[in-house]
Amino acid sequence: MEIWFRLIYLLQAFAVLCCFANSLRKFPVVDWSYEQKWTVILLPLLILFNDPIFPLTLLTSNQLIGMLDGVFQITFICAILFFWLCIYHGLRQNERKPISFYLPKAILVGPFWICGVIMAKYRRMNEFDDPAFSYEIDSNAYTNIKTCVGIFAIIYIVYLVCLILRAYSDLRSMPYFDARLKFVTISMVISLVICSTITHMQYGLGLIEDSFAADLNTEYMTSALFMTFYGICNFYVFTLAAVYSPTKKPGFESSITKDNPAFSMVNDSEEDIPYGSDEESHKPLNPPNDDSD
């Protein structure tokens, strides 16, 4: 069942990627919104998340195949965490330099990726090499990982909350940007609530134990947990692709999708678009007198 549903999600992700890329093909890259650029990145990572080589785990005993499955999953989850930081910060400014904008966020999310890979595969590799290995006895090996994850999780939550509050305080009164913030926030909250519920159902209070890291793996106790987790991850990105897909008629697309917050206040607002033309909106308030009158 897991193979078939992974295959279904894989084909759906590939189809959505093709449709979304084809819809953006008629627009220059400079006219893509920041969310559209991120959706183009998340869709290929979603394909890896569904793991095209997963059936090989049943055909071979190679540890690399199973390890790649865990690496693909943690890479996609870290990309989502990185996406949330960049969206709430990137909507407030135009200049997104690699060093000043992306590097601090990569440093914050990077430890989650490293610790996730270690937690997912350390126990399996040790038990494969040493059948007498017991994580309950050798749980001290996970103390540093647990401390690192806890510290960076607190920093990430505090930083994300600050970015959300700053974004709403700066952009909530601006046309178009307010709707973008609301959609990102609502979709993020729904995804976090569902994923937190799944985590609690699968691990319970084991997450706060010293040996919690050894119990984290890519297996699921019931099919419902597997379907819910993979479903929310896939449909979250599918929703992004559906919402950020451009319309067939460009219209005001090239001007509205600008990521400059000042553009939203200076140029056409939401009321100017249906009720007034762009040419009329730039006419002077006091036209010069006609000499013939």
Label this structure with key terms:
mainly alpha, globular, Wntless-like transmembrane domain-containing protein, TMEM181
What is the strand and helix layout of this fold?
Blueprint: H1 2-24, H2 34-49, H3 63-90, H4 98-129, H5 143-171, H6 177-203, H7 212-215, H8 223-244, H9 253-256, H10 261-266, H11 272-275, H12 278-281
Helix pairs in contact: 1-2, 1-8, 2-3, 2-8, 3-4, 3-5, 4-5, 5-6, 6-8
Protein name: Wntless-like transmembrane domain-containing protein
Domain Wntless-like transmembrane: 1-248
Membrane topology: Multi-pass membrane protein
Compute the CA-based radius of gyration: 24 Å
Largest sheet: none
Number of strands: 0
Approximate strand percentage: under 5%
